[in-house]
Amino acid sequence: MAGQTDPVAQAEAAFDAWRMDEVSALLPTLPDTADGDYVRGLVANRLNDIEASKRFLQRALPELERQHSPRATNALLTLSDDYQKAAAYADQANALREAVEHHAKDLGSAAQGVKDVLALASALSGSPPQTITFSGPSRLPIRRNPLGTFDVEAVANGVGGSWMLDSGANYSVVSESFAKRLGLSIKGTAGGVGSTTGASVQSNVAVVKEIRLGTATLRNVAVLVVRDDLLHMKLPGKEHQISAAFGFPVFQALGRISFRGDKAILIGSATDTREDGVQIYMDGLTPVVMVATEGESVPVGLDTGSSTTSLSSAYWMKVKDRADAWPRSRQSSAGLGGARSLDTVSQPEWKFALGKDEVILKNVRIETESRPGPGGPPMFGTLGQDLWANAAGFTLDFRSMRFRIDRAGLSKRPVSGNDCASPLPRCAP
Fold this sequence. Notes:
The chain is an alpha+beta fold. It has helices at 2-5, 7-16, 20-26, 34-46, 50-66, 71-85, 89-102, 104-107, 111-123, 176-182, 248-254, 313-319, and strands at residues 131-134, 138-144, 150-156, 159-165, 172-175, 188-194, 200-213, 216-226, 232-235, 238-241, 244-246, 256-260, 264-267, 278-279, 281-283, 286-293, 296-302, 310-311, 328-335, 338-354, 357-367, 381-383, 393-397, 402-406, 419-420. The chain has 3 domains: 2-123, Serine Threonine Protein Phosphatase 5, Tetratricopeptide repeat; 131-267, Cathepsin D, subunit A, domain 1; 278-420, Acid Proteases (Cathepsin D, subunit A, domain 1, Beta Barrel), CATH 2.40.70.
């Protein structure tokens, strides 16, 4: 009964279940205690308010550890995420080391993933933080590669090349052969890196001194260096060799990036005063929005590197009793380390609300089996490019944490049977 009247327990339960409206309502009721600050820190992290998250969690942590509270472990992991987003790699390594050395029991099955991220943070500990400067706004041409995802031209360490735009990737990535062209020095091993295929592969980590992207100049960009063959994506009827890709840290640094159909991106513009669109939340390094479907508000990932929308087993559990007539098949999904085959059901028409927009997508793939990793439970899936395919464009704004579809009509076209589901790495505890 205590949990029903304890605002901290209520807020924590609502937070874990992604009932964000309930969380917002409970925040003012939290006590000025370590436990209250702990929940405030978690919420600030999900809102991408890094400084507030660090402040609350650093204040809460000593008392949580004195109490031997299991919340101390999650506070350390959330602080690690804050430090990573701020490119404070030494602080990130210290937080993860504390979790591994003093909270191993609480980590449970996540222990190896934490150790892998610790290896990456330790390798980067002596590196300067990533920075970005703009000389003004710019409009950059983009093009679709054979996987259906977007590429843009950039100049890294004086070497021009195509970089895939993948907001769903936790890290930027280069192939070993491209790393040699850039003259990169390996900082260390990043440990096991996961992908949407379920594969875990070894990679190295390096830092690109300078990347020029239109009017933007990024410095000290951390990248994973991956074997070329692991970035060779094969699907029925198409294949593509990825040489380089920008992941979430670069999207965050750009602040706001607007896609103009499949023709161009706009970066470096002045602060946008528009407040329309929907709230972006963060699940670690993955952007998330809430959609209304099946009578409730649920979280889904946002992924510019995924050619189609897909729904997870969490959604399947909601609709399986009425899905007898829906087509079933095994479909391929490409990702780091190759492709995997999935048991799927295709929903002929998925209706949902994204903010004020009523959206209909055709032939949406549903995964019927639970799997770990991005897009899996508690996420209800991942929104891909079919969401905005027939719109004028869309904007990801990590300054105001808003996602907006610039509407010229929303997508209602059938989706492909094969999917490139954000092929690049996820490396999260």
